[in-house]
Amino acid sequence: MISLIGDKWSVHIVMLLGGGRKRFMEIKRSVDGISHKMLSVTLRGLERDGYVTRTVFATIPPKVEYELTDLGRELLVPLAALGSWAIDNHHRVAAARSAYDLRETDAPQAERTAS
């Protein structure tokens, strides 16, 4: 579960599928910067873990749709809470980063290499 949250793409895809069933290329167009291969790997992992189902339709070319399972829909609740927390606290994280960067810039080289 923790690796899912730390994954660059999985949370985004789960949240996207929270809006309903999507085809592969719909997901790819909606997830900026994801490669075809990475989307395939991510969807396969989400399917393996039971968050997503994959339905293949026998058409030419094959039509494949992905949607959240009950487990995946349940996951939306804590992810939404985490997302709200991140939005509410973004300014605090930005301030902490700025303060850290300022300290690191102002610290003598010997202090930085000692830590």
Can you give a write-up of this model?
With 115 residues, this protein is of the alpha+beta class. Helices cover 66% and strands 12% of the residues. The chain has helices at 2-6, 10-17, 24-30, 36-48, 70-106, 109-114; strands at 22-23, 52-57, 63-68. A hairpin with a 5-residue loop joins strand 2 and strand 3 (63-68). The mean pLDDT is 88.
Count of individual beta strands: 3
Determine the number of helices (DSSP H or I, runs of at least 4 residues): 6
Describe the main β-sheet briefly: 3 strands, antiparallel
What is the CA-based Rg, rounded? 19 Å
What overall form do the CA principal axes indicate? elongated
Q: How far is it from the N-terminal to the C-terminal residue, by CA?
A: 32 Å
Strand content: 5-15%
Structural class: alpha+beta
Strand order of the largest sheet: 1-3-2
Helicity level: 55-70%
Low-confidence blocks of residues: none
Order of helices and strands: HHEHHEEHH
Mean pLDDT: 88
Quick summary of this structure?
By secondary structure, the chain is α+β, with helices and mostly antiparallel strands. The chain is 66% helix and 12% strand. A hairpin with a 5-residue loop joins β2 and β3 (63-68).
